[in-house]
Amino acid sequence: EPWQDKQRRLRQRLRRILPIDVHRPEPLGAPLRPRADALLSAFCLEAVSPDRASFVRALSHVGTLLRPGGHAVLLGALGESFYLAGPARLPVGALQEAAGFALRELRSYAMPPALRTGVDDVDGVFFAHAQK
């Protein structure tokens, strides 16, 4: 089905879209009340964090949006140091357990040669479930 139809259906189901800056201590500009039960990051936090320190800070900032016991699901790239966004080459930080989360599950998968397209230097992908 056309992506426009998928976009329309998704927008009908969303209650709200909030702009977020993961590099600010209050990523939404103000505390989230009530705090979220879960959050999802798909190829985002490591992509906007050029080094480990900024990644850990971003994860900590995002963690403030979760209630105690809340869950975080992260999907991301392993071994990636950059990705291309058009002509821009953007640095990427590496993922490690940090920022007050307890790792509940971590799975990683090697990137097969057929999926290496040259837009990044990914070795694999990961799925992580962590709890605050």
TrEMBL record:
<keyword id="KW-0489">Methyltransferase</keyword>
<keyword id="KW-0808">Transferase</keyword>
<keyword id="KW-0949">S-adenosyl-L-methionine</keyword>
<dbReference type="InterPro" id="IPR000940">
    <property type="entry name" value="NNMT_TEMT_trans"/>
</dbReference>
<dbReference type="GO" id="GO:0005829">
    <property type="term" value="C:cytosol"/>
</dbReference>
<protein>
    <submittedName>
        <fullName>PNMT methyltransferase</fullName>
    </submittedName>
</protein>
<dbReference type="InterPro" id="IPR029063">
    <property type="entry name" value="SAM-dependent_MTases_sf"/>
</dbReference>
<dbReference type="GO" id="GO:0032259">
    <property type="term" value="P:methylation"/>
</dbReference>
<dbReference type="GO" id="GO:0004603">
    <property type="term" value="F:phenylethanolamine N-methyltransferase activity"/>
</dbReference>
<comment type="similarity">
    <text>Belongs to the class I-like SAM-binding methyltransferase superfamily. NNMT/PNMT/TEMT family.</text>
</comment>
<dbReference type="Pfam" id="PF01234">
    <property type="entry name" value="NNMT_PNMT_TEMT"/>
</dbReference>
